[in-house]
Amino acid sequence: MAVRYELIKQCSQTGARAGRLHTPHGTFDTPIFMPVGTQATVKAMSPHELKAMGAGIILSNTYHLYLRPGHELVAEAGGLHAFMQWDGGILTDSGGFQVFSLGPLRKITEEGVTFRSHLDGSKHFLSPERATEVQMSLGADIIMAFDECVPYPAEHDYAKASTERTTRWAERCKAVHARDKQALFGIVQGGMFKDLRSMSARDLVELDFPGYAIGGLSVGEPKELMYEMLEHTVPLLPITKPRYLMGVGTPDCLVEGVLHGIDMFDCVFPTRVARNGTVMTSQGRLVVKNAEFARDFRPIDSQCGCYACRNFSRAYIRHLLKTEEIFGLRLTTTHNLYFLIHFMKDMRQAIIEDRFLEFRVAFWSHYQR
Amino acid sequence: MAVRYELIKQCSQTGARAGRLHTPHGTFDTPIFMPVGTQATVKAMSPHELKAMGAGIILSNTYHLYLRPGHELVAEAGGLHAFMQWDGGILTDSGGFQVFSLGPLRKITEEGVTFRSHLDGSKHFLSPERATEVQMSLGADIIMAFDECVPYPAEHDYAKASTERTTRWAERCKAVHARDKQALFGIVQGGMFKDLRSMSARDLVELDFPGYAIGGLSVGEPKELMYEMLEHTVPLLPITKPRYLMGVGTPDCLVEGVLHGIDMFDCVFPTRVARNGTVMTSQGRLVVKNAEFARDFRPIDSQCGCYACRNFSRAYIRHLLKTEEIFGLRLTTTHNLYFLIHFMKDMRQAIIEDRFLEFRVAFWSHYQR
């Protein structure tokens, strides 16, 4: 099998677990945070810098690559790994989330989705078959079934019809996907309805995917509701398979996701806020662009071992951000990714040593916002 | 003395010469190209990357740093080297060129220049004394006298008055500058008039600076006229002192500058065109952003050993540029700087082996544009 999950340690008091994900491009410790490289590049970073800071799997977006440079071109280059010179793991989403986000620019039928490009208005069609074929061309280690992310809020009727269709689509994805070197994950939907989450999980588990994502969370609902959905849904998934919570990546949600037994996360959060001048530290967030740091010659985080913190001051980084220098974005991005990757390592270590609950208490006792 | 020039080899047929520049932050082979780091950062690059590709001295702009973050702040950080974590050489310009470029926003008197910031319209005053003090705060290895760059074209009368004032200003800079660890260079002006270039060179040599820049060239005049001015001016400068041609950095002008005996160059050209998607190769320039490279999976220059060429294809770099990804700008900038730095090394080697004229013939035989 292309991708295999190995359970190393189950927390004795919570759902948290430490494991390993075996892929054709390496074995990665879980729980893991996957940096997002939407357009075949993690914004501002080189693949060698990502590797050096301990990144294992990155996520890339099928919708964007399908439009630019086109999946055939990526295939000609030898696939996404060769194109972007990343020899670690890659996961591609199905394009579904982006296409559905286009709002009035898209139309859904049972067959698939017709949409217009946000770039030039050109007309396109993605179906479960097409999305899977595109992802096969890109050649990621893990690809995702084409789904509809149920919007929040949604009526039960709509959520039910959508979730049932997502299951039918997952079946169609599976039918065209037959490649041993690539794992196709199913995506559990169901909105904020426990009965639909149960239905979705049951139906997808029946289809026997090598891994399961939980989609449709972190879409605007209160965090408590997201945690409730996780608490309900994760136990419905097989313990032998990896579990991936899509689009989640703030430290608080990572802790709670891990608590409920999630193994994989991705989010644009650390890289996006970095470019706005916000950095994460062991003491909470810091808007390093703010005037208060103009003459602060300390590193972002004196506890941190990243390239930015080992070399540069808050004052210098603030200067770079204020003057809109690219190197400023490189430094804040470097720091935030390093911070989250090491945050996950710390959580994993806590699970291994069966002190995850203590880790969580300590985290919440000083977490701001 | 802070900065000392050591002549290693004089070309037997041309003015070209190979030497070494000894500074408090290292000894650097000349002729040398100095990358421009306007705002205490060479755009898109880290100081460690610059070092790794063989950059020796970089240039930073007094005008920009004076406005943001302010020279007092840089001094508090321990000077420019500490602020930006660059342990190689630094040269700062005097701010004169930028201030004079402000056009209607500035007013010149014998005392100095009153101007309004291009950022917020705030009023400022730079004089020879002030510009020198600001540069002393920044702490570069080489600082420049405050001059007026005679515009092109200019009347002889205006050019004469301006050049004479520049000499008086140079004297005033020298009077306030007394720091052994920092070298103050004089700047020869005189517009496109040989008699004024002679006058300027004679007067400045009289003042005995540790190095001389030639300013007021590459300001819109035909290149032949620039070469004529170089041919006339360089022999008027002492052979024991380094010679710096300001604002010049295209391969053709570098070759001709070296031919006439120039040791130091700086220019935003390689970094600026890189950000517009143009790269230099041994076969001429290449607009890697162009559609023709969409499926070109070769490196920018198969002869090149830079990070970009060792790892990435034209197709990938074009994709990054088209999608406005920061990493694309990093790669083209890396390539162009590496290319020019190694171009200078090749020229130096040719001088050492007394085959510079052959190098020049070979260069012109395949140079495009």
Question: How would you concisely characterize the structure shown here?
Answer:
The structure is a homodimer of 369-residue chains. With 369 residues, the first copy, chain A, is an alpha/beta fold.
Explain this structure.
- Two copies of one chain form a homodimer.
- Chain A has 369 residues and is α/β, with parallel strands linked by helices.
- In chain A, 41% of the residues lie in helices and 18% in strands.
- Chain A is built from 15 helices and 16 strands.
- Chain A has helices at residues 47-52, 62-67, 71-76, 80-84, 96-100, 128-138, 156-176, 194-207, 223-233, 251-259, 269-275, 307-311, 314-322, 326-352, 356-366, and strands at residues 4-10, 17-23, 26-30, 32-34, 57-60, 89-92, 106-108, 113-116, 123-126, 142-144, 183-188, 212-214, 243-245, 264-266, 278-281, 284-287.
- In chain A, strands 4-14-13-12-11-10-6-5 form an eight-stranded parallel β-sheet. In chain A, strands 1-2-3 form a three-stranded antiparallel β-sheet. In chain A, strands 7-8-9 form a three-stranded antiparallel β-sheet.
- In chain A, a hairpin with a 6-residue loop joins strand 1 (4-10) and strand 2.
- In chain A, helix 6 packs across helix 7 (156-176) and helix 10 (251-259) runs parallel beside helix 14.
- The longest helix of chain A has 27 residues, at 326-352.
- Chain A is globular.
- The N and C termini of chain A lie far apart (41 Å).
- The mean pLDDT of chain A is 96.
- The interface between A and B is large, with 37 and 37 residues.
